[in-house]
Design a protein that fits this description.
Layout: H1 11-26, H2 30-34, H3 36-59, H4 62-88, H5 94-154
Helix pairs in contact: 1-3, 1-5, 3-4, 4-5
Length: 155
């Protein structure tokens, strides 16, 4: 497979994967490891973010990719909420929380930038297609006028 199309080359996927690994690490210690429900939800949310990026990339169509990137953003909101609650419950130290939240915010910005980039490229393709159609119509009209002019002079 061409590396350009490989989801593992996406910066937002790489960063989201690193965040998921870090969340697994911090959730194995302290009070968070004892709250199995919260620990599992944090982990599942983190995995959901990175998985949606990968799954969307593999769908092929830009519209599908954008839909999955939007789901990754939604999963990020759930993850951020769980991080805030974990901090408030004393499960995460403030420094750990701030680091994880900062990383998540950067990932969200990367996902947003990727969505905008995909939309711009899709708009450019649509504009090029519209221009091509307009050129075809203009050529057809010009050819019709030439044909009409040739017919008028031959009579």
């Amino acid at each position: 497979m061409n590396d350009f199309y490989n989801f593992t080359n996406l910066g937002c996927w790489q960063q989201a994967k690193e965040l998921a690994v870090e969340i697994y690490r911090v959730s194995t210690d302290g009070n968070l490891k004892d709250d199995i429900a919260m620990r599992n939800q944090l982990r599942e949310s983190a995995i959901s973010v990175v998985s949606n990026i990968a799954e969307g990339k593999e769908r092929g169509a830009d519209s599908e990719f954008i839909k999955f990137l939007e789901m990754a953003k939604t999963s990020s909101a759930g993850l951020r909420t769980r991080l805030i609650i974990s901090r408030d419950l004393g499960y995460l130290a403030e420094g750990d929380f701030l680091d994880l939240e900062d990383r998540l915010i950067r990932i969200l910005a990367m996902i947003g930038g990727l969505i905008r980039s995909i939309k711009r490229k899709a708009d450019a393709r649509a504009d090029a297609k519209a221009d091509a159609k307009a050129n075809i119509k203009a050529d057809a009209k010009a050819n019709a006028k030439e044909t009409q002019g040739t017919q008028d002079t031959s009579q």
